[in-house]
Every structure is written in C-alpha cells, then in structure tokens.
Write a structure and sequence with these properties.
- The protein contains 13 helices and twelve strands.
- Helix 2 packs antiparallel against helix 5, helix 3 packs antiparallel against helix 4 and helix 4 runs antiparallel to helix 5.
- It has four domains: 250 residues, no CATH class; 202 residues; 141 residues, Immunoglobulin-like, CATH 2.60.40.150; 27 residues.
- Helices cover 68% and strands 11% of the residues.
- InterPro entries: C2-C2_1 (IPR021656), C2_domain_sf (IPR035892), RPGRIP1_fam (IPR031139).
Length: 784
C-alpha cells in the first residue's frame, strides 16, 4: 500500500473566488473589531509560533530531501560499481545498504512518533481551549444561585434527580420545553477548524507511520526471502557444478541471475525513492503555499492591529476632548447607581415584608419615605421659584441695559449731528480758501511773503504810513489767528468724534456681550426648567411605580399570610434542556393552602452480611416503598444489582394545616426494602425518616443517609442491613407557617394554664364564700 499524499487546495480555492474572499475578509474584520486587543495579541503570538513551527518543519523536509538525494546518488554509484564487483562483495554491499535503509526507516519512525505525540498534545490543548470558550459563553457565574422570588421561569437541577419521578396529585397538561439554540462564535469556529486540521494531520501521520512500518516489514520479508533464494540457488548450483565441465557456464549463469535480480531490486528501489521524492516535493510546495498564506495573514493582522491602535488613539482623544459627554456619562452612572440602590432597597423591602407578615412598621417607613419624597418635591418647587426670581432680576437688568444703550445711541446721534455741522463749516471755509486761491492765482504763503516785503519797504521808504502797515499786519494776524483757531477746533472735533466712535464701539461690544450672556442665561434657565420638569415628572412616575409595587407587595403579602395565593411549581429541566421522565408534567398547580413535598431515593448499599443473605453469586432484585402521611404507598422501580441506584422521586401535594405540621414534627416516614422472588416479594429491611429538620431549617431541604434494619424473621440476626441515600424537599418554605404554629401552641398553652388558674381561683372564692357568709359577690358582665 503506497502513501500518496494529496495537495491541500483548501487555501488556494479562496483565491479563485474574489467575492467570497472579500465577504470572508469583511466578516473577519468585523469579528476582529469586536475582539479585545489582548486576545488579538494572543492570537497573533499563536500564529507566529505556528509559523516558526512550520519553518522548522520545512527545514526538516528540506534536510530529508537532501538526504534522499544523497542516497539516490549513492544508489546510482553503487549500481555502477556493482557491474565491476564480484559476487561476494556485491552481497556485502547490498546487506550494508539494506541495513542503512533500515536505520533510516527507524529514524523516520521515531521522528513520526515524536510528531504524533506533539500533535496529540496540541489537539488536547485546542480541545481544552474550545471547551473553555464554550463554557464561558454558555455558562454563567450565577447559574447555581437560586432566586428568592418565584419569577415563573424554569430552573435547572441535576439530571439524576429527575429519574423515575411520580406525582401524587392533580395533573393539568403536558408542556414541552424548547431547546435553546446554540450560539456559535468566531473563536469557537476557529478552534473547531484548527481541531479538524490537527485531526487530519494526525491521521496523515498515522497513515505515514503505518506505511513506513509496512515498508520495513516488506523489506525484512524480502531480505529473508532473498537469503532463502540465495541459499537455494547456491545448493542447486553446487549440485549442478558437481557434474564437472559445465562449472564455468553455471557460474556465469549464476552471476547473470544475481546481476539481473540486483538490477531489478535497484530499479524498484529507485522507483520507490523517486515517488517518495515527488511526494516530499508536493508536500514541500503545499507547505510553502500555506506558509505564504500564513505570512499574508500575519501582515493583515498587523495592519488590523495598527488600525485598531489608531482607532484607540482617536477614541482616547475624543474621550479627552469630550468633557460634556463625560459629565453626561457621570450623571447617567449616578442615575444607574441610584436605580441600583433603589432596586436593592426594593429587594430589602420585599424580603422584610415576606419575613414579617403582620408588621406595621413598614407602613410607617413607607409613610416616612412618602413624606421625604413630598419634602423633596417641595424643595424642587422652591428651587424653581428661586430660579424664576433670578430670571426676573436678569430681565430687569436686561431692560436697564437696553435703556442705557438707547441713551448712548441718542448721545451718539447728537454728537454725529454736531460733527456733521462742524464738517459742513470746515468744508465751507476750505471751499472759500480754495476759491480765493483759484481766483487770485496765489496761495497763502505767497500773500504772507508779499505782505512781509511790502511792510519792509514801507518801513524803509515811508515811515509816515506805519499805521496803515500796522492795520494790515493786524488784519493778517487776525486772519492767521482765525485760521489756526479753526484748525484747532477741527482737530478737537475730530478727536472728540474719534473718542465718541471708540466709546460707541466699546458700548456696542459690551451690549453684544450682555446680549449673548442673557441669551445663554435664558437658554440655561430653559434647560433647567425642562430638566426640573422632567425630574418632577420622573419623580412622579417613580412614586406611582413605587406605590404600585407597594400595593402589589401588600396584596402578595396578604395572599401569603391568609393563604389565598396559588403557587405554580415548575419542574426544572435537566442539563440537556429536556426532562428525564416524560410522564412528569412541566408545571403543577397548587391550590390555596397547598404545598409540594418531594422524597427522593438515590441508591442503596448493602453490607457483607446482607450480601451473604442474598447470596454472593446472585444479583438481587430489590425495590423500596415509601409510606408518607395520609397518602398511598409509593414504589420505586425494580433494580437488579448489589448497589442498586433507584433515582426515584415521589411527589406529594399536601394541605398545610396543623395535622401536617404535627406529623412533620413528631411522626416518621417509613421506607421499606423489598426483594422480589419470582412473581412475589418479601420485605427484608426498613428504616424511619424524621422530617423535623425539614421545617426547622436547611431552607426546606434535607439530605442524608438512613440505616436499613433487618425486619424479616429469617434475617433478624443480621441487624444493620445497609444504608439508603435520600433527600427531601419542600417546594414552598413553611418557616412562617411553622412559626405561627409554635406561637399558636404557645398561646394555647398559656390559655390552658390561665383557664386552670381561673377555675382554681373561682373554686377558692366559692369555698371562702361558703365559709364566710358576710362576703359580698360582684358580678361583671361585658355586653359589647
């Protein structure tokens, strides 16, 4: 049987389908985006380790190919040398070659065994990882914690507790429980795929190991067969060579036969080595392809990790910048904490209400809470009024600012009018000066220079006309002074106008800031008012919800206290989601004042004397019977064996009254062991169960073992027959009922003692009255 490995095309089929690959890549990106960075890093490191292992495997394969090439070259050289070597040397060469091949095959077998061990270890690790991930996703940390309040949802119990359960009481209808769908995640699928690949590689390694072992066995058989043929040929040739002259021809024939056989063996071995070489080359190519795919996958994962890191940096920046969102989140967290505290308070209130049935302190607490909430509402209304008063003050300030703004606008308008008037005057004067300069074709500097020259001439030539020159000088000076005054007034007006403009701009900016501040305050006040109204509405809704809860709790408390509530007891499914006994109903309706008591018998174990009584070589067939209160006898199924496992549960629907409580406190439940003999049976042992601890503690559940005492007349000398394991459970705890029964019994005892004392006192009074006739008798009658 030749082992011809097929090329793995599972990695290359996706290359021919770009659409499928794109969908796969998108799904993988979505899956990776949902994963944690630590898990991505862990998977990257695992892929890197697998890549290193594949590299080592590829190097080993290359070394094997090199060794095979060297062996092939040696075989070819030996074949060439065998043509010129005598028969004895050829046999030694062939034996050494066979030994070398056997040594190589042994080395290969040891390497394959080591690879097999490594693959088995990896398979175990992958299976453990898959089981761990499946348990993390399917199980919960609070599966084993039972709820204190009956929510109507099915609960889980161990499957052995539901074997052979029988119900004594009314049955309504059968209900089938649905199976929960499986949740498959990407990590589980990847673990399953790797598990499948490891199984396939393990099977291939097993096949290679088997083929190598078969080849070694075949080579050993061929070697032994060759030795036998060689000896037979030698004997035959020796017998033929005894004839005499044909010895040389016979020797040549023998050499020819040996050479042909060696040539045929070498050709077969060469052909086998060529097939192995081709197989190893195909395996090497497939490993190179898978290695390239893994390198691409590692690069893609690196890019995805970088993208995720960039996204994480962006999210961190957004978290740094988003202070408002942080405040909102903080407020939401505070609300969540408030809701949690409220939930805890409601749970505590419910527990206290259930514990204390007739306690009136809860009403006072609820009234105090209601008073506190009303006080809180009044405080919120006061804050609303304060906010409204602050809003009125802000509006008054806004009107004052508007009035001041109007006054500044009017002042600005008057100053602007003055500025326009002064500008008109300045324009008139400038126009006159320009007209004078244009008509006279001179300017003021030339006039001043001309006047100065004329004044100097007159002073030199005509000293008698000094008064005229003085008059002209005075006129020029007056004109210059008037021009300078006008220029100074113009500069002052421009400065005043610039100051006024700056003041108006500043006032405009201040008014704009005030307006923005007023708008912000108005918006904030609207938001506060909306938030306050929402809080008031939410507080009202919470008060309504709390009042409704209080009403429901009071109603349920009254139902529990006065026995007007119907309990719905549901059977808990097994681990696989289905009930173990199909004859049991999914739910049992309990009427007012009823309860469900379950008695379960797990198994029985017998001692040596009991086994001697049954017979050491026999497998006794036994069953148990349960006698409880006023109900009929219940039988377990007949089990054959030395340690029978009955796994039987008897369910009793009982009325919770004084008789039942007295029975649970004082009486015993009888369990008898019977042995079947043909079609009849005989009672061999019995035990009594005390159910007093069931109502005094242990949360309505009792678990233990009881000694079976021999009861048959033939085995009374045995004494202790063995033990039986059992548990008893109350579906609805009766601590409150048992407490009320104790109080009732105590009150009855007090009443009895009081009545005895009163009768004794009345008898003494009658005796004294008989002895003393002067004693008066006072009779008191209570009419209403």
């Amino acid at each position: 049987m030749d082992f011809t490995p097929a090329r793995d095309t599972s990695m290359t089929t996706g290359l021919d389908q770009p659409q499928g690959q794109a969908k796969r890549i998108s799904s993988e990106r979505q899956m990776i985006a949902k994963l944690d960075p630590a898990e991505l890093q862990d998977r990257y490191l695992r892929l890197y380790d697998d890549h290193l292992v594949l590299k080592q495997h590829a190097r080993k394969q290359e070394d094997k190919i090199k060794k095979l090439a060297t062996t092939l070259a040696k075989v070819i050289e030996d074949k060439k040398k065998s043509e010129a070597v005598p028969f004895g040397a050829k046999a030694t060469i062939r034996d050494s070659e066979i030994e070398n091949q056997l040594a190589e095959y042994r080395n290969k077998i040891s390497e394959l065994r080591e690879q097999n061990k490594l693959l088995k270890q990896r398979l175990v690790v992958v299976q453990q990882q898959a089981q761990a991930t499946q348990l993390k996703k399917s199980s919960s940390a609070y599966d084993g914690v039972s709820s204190r309040i009956d929510t109507g949802q099915p609960k889980r119990i161990p499957s052995p507790l539901l074997h052979n359960i029988r119900v004594v009481g009314p049955r309504d209808s059968f209900r089938t429980s649905g199976t929960t769908p499986r949740v498959n995640s990407g990590l589980l699928e990847e673990a399953q795929a790797t598990n499948k690949q490891l199984n396939e590689s393990l099977e291939k390694a097993h096949q290679q190991l088997n083929t190598y072992e078969q080849q070694v066995e075949n080579l050993r058989q061929q070697l032994s067969q060759r030795d036998n043929d060689h000896e037979q040929n030698l004997l035959r040739l020796r017998s033929q060579a005894a004839g005499g002259d044909s010895r040389v021809n016979l020797q040549e024939n023998i050499d020819m036969i040996r050479l042909q056989r060696d040539l045929r063996d070498k050709s077969d071995e060469l052909r086998r080595l060529q097939t192995q070489c081709t197989n190893f080359e195909s395996q090497n190519r497939s490993l190179q392809v898978t290695n390239a795919e893994l390198l691409k996958e590692i690069d893609r994962l690196d890019r995805q990790i970088k993208d995720e890191q960039q996204r994480a940096l962006q999210l961190r920046n957004e978290l740094r910048n988003g202070s408002r969102s942080n405040t909102v989140v903080h407020e939401l967290n505070l609300q969540i904490e408030d809701f949690r505290r409220e939930c805890e308070a409601l749970k505590e209130a419910n527990r206290k209400i259930v514990d204390s049935a007739f306690n009136s302190d809860r009403e006072r607490e609820f009234r105090e809470k209601e008073r506190a909430l009303r006080l809180q509402i009044a405080q919120l209304e006061a804050t609303i009024k304060a906010d409204l008063g602050e809003r009125g003050n802000l509006l008054d300030r806004l009107t004052l600012e508007k009035n001041s703004n109007q006054r500044t606008d009017e002042e600005h308008r008057t100053m602007h009018l003055k500025y326009l008037e002064m500008k008109e005057k300045y324009d008139d004067l400038a126009e006159k000066m320009r007209f004078f300069e244009r008509e006279g074709d001179i300017n003021m500097r030339e006039i001043e220079e001309a006047l100065i020259i004329l004044r100097q001439r007159k002073q030199r030539q005509e000293p008698n006309f000094d008064f005229l020159q003085k008059v002209d000088d005075e006129k020029g000076q007056n004109l210059n002074r008037r021009i300078l005054e006008l220029e100074s007034q113009l500069a002052e007006t421009t400065n005043e106008l610039e100051k006024t403009r700056n003041l108006l701009l500043m006032q405009y900016k201040i008014n704009r800031d005030y307006k923005l501040e007023v708008d912000c305050i108005q918006r904030k006040m609207d938001e506060n008012q909306a938030e306050h109204s929402a809080r008031v509405l939410e507080s009202g809704q919470l008060l309504d919800i709390r009042a409704e809860r209080i009403r429901k709790l009071e109603k349920s408390l009254k139902d529990v206290a006065y026995g007007t509530r119907q309990y719905r007891v549901q059977e808990q499914p097994a681990a696989d989601g289905n009930l173990t006994n199909e004859l049991i109903e999914d739910a049992i309706e309990l009427e007012r004042g009823q309860n469900l008591i379950e008695i379960h018998i797990s198994r029985a174990s017998f001692n040596e004397r009991a086994l001697e009584y049954f017979g050491k070589n026999n497998e006794p067939s036994t069953f148990c019977s349960i006698e409880f209160f006023e109900h009929e006898l219940q039988m377990t199924p007949i089990i054959k064996g030395r340690t029978p496992e009955y796994n039987f549960t008897a369910q009793y629907i009982v009325n919770v009254d004084d008789f039942l409580l007295y029975y649970l406190q004082k009486e015993y439940t009888l369990i008898e062991l019977h042995q079947t003999v043909g079609q009849s049976f005989q009672t061999v042992a019995a035990c009594k169960l005390s159910l007093k601890e069931l109502i005094e503690g242990n949360q309505g559940r009792l678990h233990g073992t009881a000694k079976l005492i021999a009861s048959h007349q033939n085995n009374l000398d045995i004494g202790a027959f063995g033990v039986v394991e059992y548990w008893v459970r109350l579906r609805v705890p009766m601590e409150q009922a048992f407490r009320l029964l104790k109080e009732k019994m105590k009150a009855q005892g007090y009443l009895a003692t009081t009545s005895r004392q009163s009768t004794k006192t009345s008898n003494d009074i009658e005796q004294r009255h008989d002895l003393d006739p002067n004693m008066n008798e006072l009779t008191i009658a209570i009419l209403n």
